[in-house]
Amino acid sequence: MSERFDQGMKTRRAVLGDAHVDRAEAQKTGFDETFQTFITEGAWGTLWSDDTITRRERSMLTLALLAATGNFEEIPMHIRATANTGASREDVIQAFMHVAVYAGVPRANHAIKLAKKTYSEMENDA
Q1: Cβ pair 15, 54 in contact under 8 A
Q2: Is the whole-model pTM more than 0.70?
């Protein structure tokens, strides 16, 4: 693998946690291996590994963008990642408030519902 892949895997594990990455890696097949390499190098090895902005800020941006574009499936994963990135619940609600104003209340409302459920699950797991 490439240096960017190695950095991406390191960053991915730091943000999402070993358990999540191990589960994702165990589910990888020959069909999606190229895609998994692409996101590890691109999203994690390039974007998330860049230190221009903090991981806290990246969490807030990512959650806002996921909600604004209606890509709700990954919101719980990125809410869980806030435990590793330093984005507080107050940060997250502010990101979703921006979504409400700039992308629509229904999208923000659904994202908040998912965040509340995920935070509750995280508390129960602790």
Answers
A1: no
A2: yes
Signed CA dihedral, 59, 60, 61, 64: sign only: positive
Q: How far apart are CA 74 and CA 63, in angstroms?
A: 9
Task: Tell me the H-state helices in 32-104.
Answer: 33-39, 55-68, 75-85, 89-102
The CA–CA distances, whole Å, from 110 to 62, 65, 103, 107, 115 equal 15, 13, 12, 5, 9
Q: Which residue has the tokens 């435990």?
A: 83
- State how far the Cα of 15 lies from the Cα of 12, in Å rounded to an integer: 5
Chain segment 60-105, per-residue pLDDT in tens: 999 999 999 999 999 999 999 999 999 999 999 999 999 999 999 9
- Write down the residue that tokens 């990512």 correspond to: 62
